[in-house]
């Protein structure tokens, strides 16, 4: 599903109004009705609602919601916040349509804040002040109003976007002037800001509500990013060859593990074994071979007589390689990585210490090419590309890096981002805090490498691996515990999700094609 700029969303509104055709007031009614349906479903047992409405079209949405709540017997108070005295036409029309004008309170300045004392702790607050079309941060008494609302413990629902939050750029420098919503109800397509860690405190749980914007227009827009949904997975997942054998499904080699971190290599191996690849080999210190085989008897071990891996040339013999989980960063290992970079012609995942070594030698970046996928967590990413001021800048820096060095990067975080060598961004929406434990990324790296060995394209492998890994984490969190699930148990989740996918059950992933 496309993530569009706010300018393209505005144009989609205009195109729909002109070509459906539909009057803007009726499109507003349709959009606000979807919000009302959500509110009515989730908060069916709540009776008291407070609408904070600006005087533009976002406020108009709020007035439609207010009318529908009143019509359904709810106790509704409407605060019209007149920070702009120019009422939009559709706002004015919906103000006229409100059935009970006695519940309207006008806020025009700081002195009017006395009127807010009628708020009750049980009121559901609906934020319809600004929406997503803002060009500057709230100021004057509107900023103070937002600060006031954020001090309240009431449940808050933002219509379109939390007021004060920019859709396409950072709001980091105006954090005290953004509504902290528990729910955000976005229209038709998501906004990039919803996926940024810096906005976690403001967005809450977000939903995309269909309002019937013209999808022929949307299909022709250049997206800021693509959100990975059910169609992205079902269209990319290959069917297994019933007459296949282990050599058809590829042979992976894992290079990782060093004193104190051998478990990382073991977990990456486990991830590869769960990927469907035919064979998995792993480089293991000779004294640990029996320990590895006791845990994973399926793995083929390549014993070495040193604690650290000092030669990676053997990796050239495999269909795909993973270098880095628990690898260590000593000089011998670094030299081995350099030699591999100079000669690599196979799909290769660089993770963890491989990225840390690379970061110490940024003159080696030029040896990267489209064989490589890098999978840094935020700390490793900073060492790789340097500091950033905000999450939007971080994304731009990674895009520049991928285009310059012709590689693919997965930024591992909640809503992991995949950036390919063309700078195209894909955003994964599966996964939760269950995965926030050491070893989670090692499983992902092995899983990803196993898909590469099966001749998946780099992009398809990244999309399938991140989505599968996240969905498996969610399943484990629900079955075992978000707190107590161990990363070794994540393999069970991968088995479960893969089994569902093999039977064309993609219900773990939202189907945004249906909105």
Description:
This protein is of the alpha/beta class. Helix content is 38%, strand content 15%. The protein has 17 helices and 18 strands. The protein has an eleven-stranded mixed β-sheet with strand order 1-9-18-17-16-15-14-13-10-11-12, sandwiched between helices. A seven-stranded parallel β-sheet has the order 4-3-2-5-6-7-8. β3, α4 and β4 (104-107) form a beta-alpha-beta unit. α3 (57-71) packs parallel to α4 (89-97) and α9 (262-273) crosses α15. The radius of gyration is 26 Å and the shape is elongated.
What are the main properties of this structure?
alpha/beta; seven-stranded parallel beta sheet; 38% helix; elongated
In short:
The chain is an alpha/beta fold and 515 residues long. The strands form two sheets. Strands 1-9-18-17-16-15-14-13-10-11-12 form an eleven-stranded mixed β-sheet, with helices on both faces. Strands 4-3-2-5-6-7-8 form a seven-stranded parallel β-sheet.
Counted beta strands: 18
Q: Give the DSSP E fraction (strand runs of 2 or more residues).
A: 15-25%
Taking pLDDT < 50 over at least 5 consecutive residues as the criterion, the unreliable ranges are none
Q: Whole-number average pLDDT?
A: 96
Helix content: 25-40%
Largest sheet: 11 strands, mixed
Structural class: alpha/beta
Round the Cα radius of gyration to an integer and report it: 26 Å
Helical run tally: 17
Principal-axes shape call: elongated
Distance between the termini: 10 Å
Strand order of the largest sheet: 1-9-18-17-16-15-14-13-10-11-12
């Amino acid at each position: 599903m496309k993530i569009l700029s706010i300018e393209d969303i505005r144009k989609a509104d205009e195109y729909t109004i002109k070509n459906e055709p539909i009057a803007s007031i009726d499109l507003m009614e349709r959009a606000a009705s979807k919000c009302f349906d959500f509110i009515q479903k989730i908060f069916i047992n709540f009776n008291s609602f407070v609408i904070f409405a600006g005087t533009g079209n976002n406020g108009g949405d709020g007035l439609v919601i207010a009318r529908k709540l009143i019509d359904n017997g709810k106790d509704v108070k409407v605060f019209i916040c007149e920070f702009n005295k120019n009422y939009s036409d559709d706002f004015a029309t919906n103000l006229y349509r409100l059935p009970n004008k006695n519940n309207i309170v006008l806020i025009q300045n700081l002195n009017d804040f006395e009127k807010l004392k009628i708020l009750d702790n049980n009121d559901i607050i609906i934020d319809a002040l600004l929406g997503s079309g803002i060009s500057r941060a709230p100021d004057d008494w509107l900023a103070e109003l937002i600060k006031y609302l954020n001090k309240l413990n009431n449940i808050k629902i933002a219509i379109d976007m939390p007021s004060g939050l920019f859709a396409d750029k950072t709001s980091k420098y105006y954090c005290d002037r953004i509504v902290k919503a528990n729910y955000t109800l976005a229209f038709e397509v998501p906004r990039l800001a919803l996926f940024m860690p810096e906005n976690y405190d403001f967005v809450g749980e977000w939903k995309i509500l269909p309002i019937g914007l013209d999808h022929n227009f949307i299909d022709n827009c250049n997206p800021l990013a693509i959100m990975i949904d059910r169609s992205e997975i079902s269209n990319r997942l290959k069917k297994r060859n019933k007459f296949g054998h282990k050599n058809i499904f590829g042979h992976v080699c894992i290079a990782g593990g060093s004193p104190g971190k051998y478990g990382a290599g073991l977990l990456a191996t486990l991830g590869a074994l769960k990927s469907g690849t035919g064979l998995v080999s792993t480089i293991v210190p000779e004294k640990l071979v029996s320990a590895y085989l006791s845990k994973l008897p399926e793995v083929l071990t390549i014993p070495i007589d040193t604690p650290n891996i000092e030669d990676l040339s053997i990796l050239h013999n495999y269909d795909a390689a993973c270098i880095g989980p628990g690898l260590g960063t000593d000089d011998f290992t670094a030299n081995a990585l350099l030699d591999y970079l100079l000669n690599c012609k196979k799909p290769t995942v660089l993770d963890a210490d491989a990225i840390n070594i690379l970061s110490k030698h940024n003159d080696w970046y030029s040896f990267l090419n489209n064989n490589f996928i890098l999978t840094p967590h935020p700390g490793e990413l900073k060492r790789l590309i340097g500091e950033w001021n905000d999450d939007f800048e971080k994304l731009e820096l990674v895009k520049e890096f991928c285009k310059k060095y012709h590689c693919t990067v997965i930024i591992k975080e909640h809503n992991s981002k995949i950036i390919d060598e063309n700078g195209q961004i894909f955003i994964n929406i599966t996964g939760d805090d269950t995965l926030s434990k050491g070893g989670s990324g090692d499983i992902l790296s092995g899983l990803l490498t196993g898909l590469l060995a099966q001749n998946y394209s780099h992009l398809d492998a990244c999309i399938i691996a991140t989505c599968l890994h996240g969905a498996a984490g969610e399943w484990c969190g629900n079955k075992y515990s978000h707190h107590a699930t161990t990363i070794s148990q994540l393999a069970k989740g991968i088995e479960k999700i893969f089994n569902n996918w093999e039977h064309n059950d993609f219900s773990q992933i939202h189907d945004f094609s249906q909105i």
